[in-house]
């Protein structure tokens, strides 16, 4: 009889524990595990940018109070080059986990944040996880491997020594890089039109080391030269296209190498300057479909 009573008690205890496992676990974490919620981000790499944009800004407070704070956290973490980072949603921000979930599943917004990060710190895959205790963890898989970066940087250095002179203005240097990239790469039509992947043409590796580009490759390659010049810049994207934006001589300009390297019917190479350091009003007058971007996001380029 006693064994029977003990068995019933154990079954009830197990059922209670299973049914209330989450709140019990949260109580355990609250009173028995001392988690440090004062999160700081100290690790950065040589590709970390030190400037803000209208859309996202660098922060040192990782206790969010709004959706904009979450955007800034994601940007700051991606900008640092970290592979993994955790922060906590405060109890006062009751919609925090809901907003994190919304952001984590919005690939368009995540890709937009990626546009403001140095190419070598940008992500290929970004995983967001969270628990009932409010802990949010970001795991980042970067586009460029360490070996790719090493080869690309060596190539950029070689190109700079070839095309840049000490007496050149910043605009001259941008033009020289623009010309070199276009003259030494072709648009990867096989990949864009037929999904035949032979080259890493969507990255600077394909553009600079293999000689084949998609718009992402042209843009990343140009961005590396702009970064070397310490010019504030970012990638700007529309629904189906991406190009560069650069801050030069007190103004923001568009710079689109893809469209300055047009595909010709006879296969001949052409170098154009229609999309070289132009204003938004000039861009809108030239082409309004592929370059139809969100001016609220990339508001530095407002007419």
Write up this protein.
- The protein has 303 residues and is α+β, with helices and mostly antiparallel strands.
- The protein has eleven helices and nine strands.
- The protein folds into three domains: 34 residues; 108 residues, no CATH class; 156 residues, C8orf32 fold (Roll).
- The strands form three sheets. Strands 6-7-8-9 form a four-stranded antiparallel beta sheet. A three-stranded antiparallel beta sheet has the order 1-3-2, with helices on one face.
- A hairpin with a 2-residue loop joins β7 and β8.
- α9 packs across α10.
- The radius of gyration is 25 Å and the shape is elongated.
- About 3% of the residues have low confidence.
Instruction: Classify the secondary structure makeup into a structural class.
Output: alpha+beta
- The 3D shape can be described as elongated
Biggest sheet architecture = 4 strands, antiparallel
| Terminus-to-terminus distance | 86 Å
Helix-strand pattern, N to C? Answer: HHHEHHEEHHEHHEHEEEEH
As for the CATH topology of the largest domain, it is: C8orf32 fold
Output the CATH class name of the largest domain: Alpha Beta
Low-confidence runs: 27-34
**CATH architecture classification name of the largest domain:** Roll
Major sheet: order of its strands? 6-7-8-9
Q: In the residues, how many domains can be counted?
A: 3
**Over the alpha carbons, how many angstroms does the gyration radius reach?**
25 Å
Strand content: 5-15%
Q: Roughly what percent helix?
A: 40-55%
Number of helices: 11
**For the residues shown, what is the average pLDDT?**
90
Number of DSSP strand runs? 9
